[in-house]
Write a structure and sequence with these properties.
heterodimer; A: mainly alpha; two-stranded antiparallel ribbon; 14 helices; globular; B: mainly alpha; 2 strands; 1% strand
């Protein structure tokens, strides 16, 4: 059997399994169910960010912004504008499915338009500049939402219907993984890797680097938007501060931990990190642990930061990543910044 | 907006800009020698504020009689020394081992250090905002008519100007400053001429962090509620100021800080006050799109 058939079969199997799991998850503890759904959403987010950060080498720190757009657009549409659809078709399984797919797509498209807007300046910026600009875009999106009264402003937006199920979450996650892997494996997709490895050389052999960068942003943002939609319809309440810089960092850490440019690694890291952070909540409650350990466990960001620093010092390629060829930085040229190793 | 209101906003903007300028100098100097953005710089600013918080009640009682005015100066200097040591330590532990690595690796480490300082600070100092002790009396200066200029604003101006003069002197007139400029210009060539790069990088980090520490104290005089996450936004905004002036350019950072402070204050005083925090980022995007080298910077040609 050819590789691409295996991929398609795996996708189909994943969707069927998530459908079955969804069907039988009725009696499940709702806390566990929520966590399993969050894992799926985080996998989608991390794999889509990996397309931008890992495969294309454009370091984006604003993924939570795209997620926020998807979450708010889909939540707004499904809450305020679903009456028309339900009036026409009646409230049944079919109309709800139609509505949910439509609002998720709308959220994704809205986010990908934002991705296009972020992608355009990325043509001129590299490395740390791009990181700050994307961070800025994320914050601007958050400030704009905070100032939009139609979606509750700083109070948040509540009363969103709970449509997200295991089936939707994991179908989207599987589809995202499938599309990203297929894209990177295709002849066209190799272009993303050339942009990352050596932009100048890529351009010299006729690769339209501009187009690849924008494509990566648009596609990455689309999936982030869909994940945002799933998130909104899972928690039924969203708040602008839930999509802040820290959320973006969380997704970035998943990508870095898994290894930039390794879809399997990134998906694994997303699962691991989500579980680990939930587990820390329990650790914080264990009476027999020393007080210091419990307090650190409560403050999850300290752990993030230590993981990040340790990883960069000891294994900068992440758990599953491969080291880039020596002397070719991931985030663009070093432009004369190379200092002699032992100048002392 | 009346003329009085305009000048009042201008004064407030200038004093806010002075803080941004002090922080921006650190970004610009580090970028000058290492070509990377020290994400953790804003958090050194926060540590500076907390140094002031803890030092003030311990130091001020020792200064009595004619020495009273020296108390705040002692707090300021000690804070700057502590922050300088912190900056040097961060560079040694986190950034130096990565100097040969891709820039992205260093950037991620810097984000890690920043988060560590913020949330480690929350862990040590507590997450709740603290009120900064009264380092010096804060009252309006007499004789300024309808305008209000406070003593803390005046102090912030004076200290900022003194620090800028001192910095200019160090960079332009001392051997260390000359070495700094040499490394910034061409690190490899400077090393061949016998400049010890490690020393210069440490010195630059120390200098920049000391300025950030001073900014932390001055900022807390005007905005006396401090918390461990207070460095995040001023840090990023100061970075915008550095880019606005032309990153790597020392006078540029000072001018960029002032411009950003004034713009932000005017927006905060207008009908769009809730968009205040988005202004800096919008400005950044506009500069990077139309004049990526900043006001005073020269654009570099990428060589293959």
């Amino acid at each position: 059997m050819k590789y691409r058939h295996i991929k398609k079969l795996a996708l189909l199997a994943a969707i069927i399994i998530s459908g079955l799991a969804s069907h039988f998850s009725g009696g499940m503890n709702s806390y566990y169910l929520q966590i399993i759904i969050f894992i799926g959403i985080n996998v989608t987010l991390a794999v889509s960010l990996n397309l931008i950060n890992g495969y294309t080498g454009q370091f984006s720190l604003g993924h939570a912004g795209f997620m926020a757009i998807g979450a708010y657009v889909s939540a707004y549409l499904s809450t305020e504008h679903s009456a028309v659809l339900f009036k026409a078709l009646g409230t049944n399984f079919f109309s709800i499915t139609l509505l949910f797919v439509a609002v998720l797509m709308a959220g994704g498209v809205a986010a990908s338009i934002a991705g296009l807007i972020v992608g355009v300046p990325s043509l001129r910026l590299k490395g740390d500049y791009l990181a700050i600009v994307t961070l800025g875009f994320g914050e601007i999106i958050r400030v704009l939402i905070q100032n939009t009264d139609a979606v509750g402003g700083p109070r948040g937006y509540s009363g969103i219907a709970s449509y997200t199920t295991l089936f939707w979450t994991y179908s989207v996650a599987a589809l995202t993984i499938y599309i990203v892997i297929s894209l990177i494996d295709s002849t066209y997709g190799r272009g993303f890797l050339t942009v990352r490895d050596d932009e100048v050389a890529a351009e010299a052999v006729g690769i339209n680097t501009t187009r690849y960068k924008v494509t990566a942003f648009v596609l990455g943002a689309f999936f982030a938007g869909v994940a945002g939609g799933l998130y909104a319809h899972s928690t039924t309440y969203i708040n602008p501060s839930g999509f802040d810089f820290q959320r973006s960092i969380e997704i970035v850490i998943m990508v870095i931990l898994g290894g930039m440019g390794s879809t399997a690694g990134v998906a694994f890291a997303a699962i691991l990190l989500t579980l680990l952070l939930e587990y820390l909540r329990f650790v914080a409650g264990y009476e027999w642990l020393p007080d210091l350990v419990r307090r650190i466990a409560q403050n999850r960001v300290i752990i993030y930061s230590l993981v990040l620093i340790a990883l960069m010092l000891l294994r900068p390629q992440g758990l599953f990543g491969r080291l880039p060829r020596r002397g070719i930085p991931i985030g663009g040229s070093t432009k004369g910044a190379k200092l002699p190793a032992n100048s002392a | 907006m009346s003329a009085t209101e305009f000048f009042q906003q201008l004064i407030n903007g200038l004093s806010l800009g002075a803080f941004y300028a002090l922080i921006a100098l650190g970004y610009t100097m580090v970028y000058g020698v290492l070509r990377f953005i020290n994400f953790a710089h804003g958090d050194v600013f926060m540590i500076g504020a907390f140094c002031g918080y803890y030092l003030t009640p311990r130091l001020l009682p020792h200064f009595t009689g004619w020495m009273i005015p020296l108390g705040p100066v002692a707090v300021l200097i000690l804070t700057m020394v502590i922050c300088a040591l912190l900056g040097i330590t961060i560079e040694k532990l986190a950034y130096r081992p990565l100097r040969q690595q891709p820039k992205l690796t260093v950037l991620i480490t810097a984000i890690g250090v920043s988060l560590f300082l913020e949330y480690g600070g929350q862990f040590v100092f507590g997450a709740d905002p603290k009120s900064f002790p009264e380092l010096m009396p804060d009252r309006a200066l007499p004789g300024t008519g309808a305008l209000t200029i406070t003593t803390t604003q005046l102090a912030a101006f004076i200290v900022t100007i003194c620090l800028l003069i001192a910095l200019t002197f160090i960079v332009k007139r001392t051997r260390l400053g000359m070495a700094m400029r040499a490394v910034s210009n061409n690190a490899a060539a400077a090393a061949l001429m016998g400049v010890n790069i490690d020393t210069i990088v440490s010195f630059t980090f120390g200098l920049g962090s000391a300025l950030a520490g001073a900014a932390g104290i001055l900022y807390s005089l005007s905005y006396p509620s401090i918390d461990p996450l207070m460095g995040l936004l001023p840090g990023i905004k100061a970075f915008v100021a550095a880019v606005l002036g032309g990153i790597g350019n020392i006078p540029g950072a000072a001018v960029g800080g002032i411009i950003l402070g004034v713009i932000e204050t005017f927006v905060a005083g207008s009908a769009f006050s809730t968009y205040r925090d988005a202004i800096a980022f919008s400005l950044l995007i506009v500069i990077l799109l139309f004049r990526p080298a900043g006001i005073f910077g020269r654009s570099q040609i990428e060589k293959v």
